[in-house]
Amino acid sequence: MMQTSTNSVAATRLLRGPLLHCLAEPDKQDQAIEYLADALLHIENGHIAAYGDYQTLAQGYATEQLQCVEDHADKLMVPGFIDCHVHYPQTEMIAAYGTQLLDWLSTYTFPVESQFGDLQKSRQVAEVFLQELLRNGTTTALVFCTVHPESVDGFFQVAQARNLRMIAGKVLMDRHAPPELLDTPATGYQQSQQLINQWHGVDRLQYAVTPRFAPTSSAEQLRLAGQLVAENPGVYMHTHLSENHDEVVWVKQLFPEADSYLDVYDQAGLLGPRSIFAHGIHLCDSQCQRLADSGSAIAHCPTSNLFIGSGLFPLRQLQQFDINIGMGTDVGGGSSFSMLQTLSEAYKIQQLQQVNLSPEQAFYMATLGGAKALDLDDKIGNFALGKEADFLLLDMQATPLLKFRTQYCQDWRETLFVLQTLGDDRVVVQTNILGQPSH
Ligand code: GUN
Ligand code: ZN
To answer: pLDDT band for position 439 (50/70/90)?
Structure first.
């Protein structure tokens, strides 16, 4: 049965403890969560070789193999979190005071982003950023770089050295920003194509064509972005959509011929199963329908929506149209790298709209749902056999309050909710990348 070849001992890991993951979407299907109070997890060469109830599965293993089992009875094994929208260059201006989106961009964001034409600077910030993601249990992210190709090289170099599954791209931006941050339709196209050739599909890295948002790209630049997507099957498209009221009004002025904000992107050929739109707060039903029909996904970024005052995410509206939804931290508009804290704020945003976001659905959106939004659910998102072993060990007693509170939890569901409400990076005691601890 579960044979381990003697020459691959270093690549084998057997872990025992509680295990929790999603098999399907909880809001759509019963029994979508699998919880095993005492599981055996078998990793082979960075992939899931087997998992199941310990007593049952252990019977297929030799005694000497079982002697190598790591005991994590007081932890919880879960898949790595997936951050579907985040800006690595904004790490140094997270928690910037006093503005909403358009002022926030010109006051804080653009000055910081203008420094990323320097490869060393890009690498330095990428190191801090990726360390922060891993400390918080995020193993895959869809990442904005800046307009500079060096910002992409720096990010991918650091991610590659850590063996991470990451998607990123150069920002396309040819107007309404400081001159040092602008490309042109032609240079943006050429530089993106060059970066795609260099990075897309290398190890675990993939490229996203990344127009910042409609106000900072001319119609010609958006058209060329669509051309890049059409000419490079498998690349992603990543942008912002309908985040803030003033932004929505501005887009209407800039593109009077478009039917809606989404239609600006649609006319440029930017919708599809590998297209991810951050925010999507202020959408009419016809835009929702078009998102669903095209297979596009939305990244919900609750801490950002609260921090820069953008609005309340209409979860139920988007769910009615069966749109794929993942979670994003949107650092630095977002105020935390912690996916647990991000889920906690997502819950509160629904509370303000008299909607209950269940802990199962929240956990889904941060794991398997995120993988689905990124069209990566054949590779990551849960412990299904053959998937990449990016997973976490969580300590439910990481803080005095968690230790005190969790002793009153009746079941895994309550524990999960307490964890997302009170937990943060302190809960994540081990982040594993392809089966190996990263910190
Ligand atoms: N819209 C355009 N650019 C940005 C950005 O950097 N952050 C956020 N949150 N929204 C944007
Ligand atoms: Zn953003």
So the answer is: low
For 335-389, the pLDDT digits (tens) are: 999 999 999 999 999 999 999 999 999 999 999 999 999 999 999 999 999 999 9
Residue ending a domain, choose from 373, 393, 409? 373
Q: Quick one: CA torsion of 117, 215, 287, 314, rounded to 10 degrees? A: 70
Residue 49: inside a domain? yes
| Same-domain pairing of 163 and 67 | no
Work out the pLDDT band at 2, boundaries 50, 70, 90. very low
Closest CA to 205 of 268, 147, 145: 145
- Would residue 7 count as lying in a domain? no
Residue 360 Cβ contacting ligand 1 at under 6 Å: no
Query: What is the separation of C-alpha 71 from the centre of its chain, rounded to a whole number of angstroms?
Result: 29
Instruction: State both tokens at 72.
Output: 């994590």
**Residue 426, token pair as written in the block:** 């302190």
Q: What is the CATH number of the domain that holds 48?
A: 2.30.40.10
Please tell me whether the overall predicted TM-score, pTM, comes out greater than 0.90 for this model: yes
Residue nearest to atom 9 of ligand 1 (CA): 333
Query: Is the distance from CB of 217 to CB of 176 less than 8 angstroms?
Result: no
Q: Whose Cα sits closest to atom 8 in ligand 1?
A: 333
Indicate the pLDDT class of residue 1, thresholds 50, 70 and 90: very low
Residue 183 lies in a domain: yes
Q: How many CB atoms lie within 10 A of CB 37?
A: 12
Separation CA 258–CA 287 (nearest Å): 12
Atom of ligand 1 nearest to the CA of 213: 2
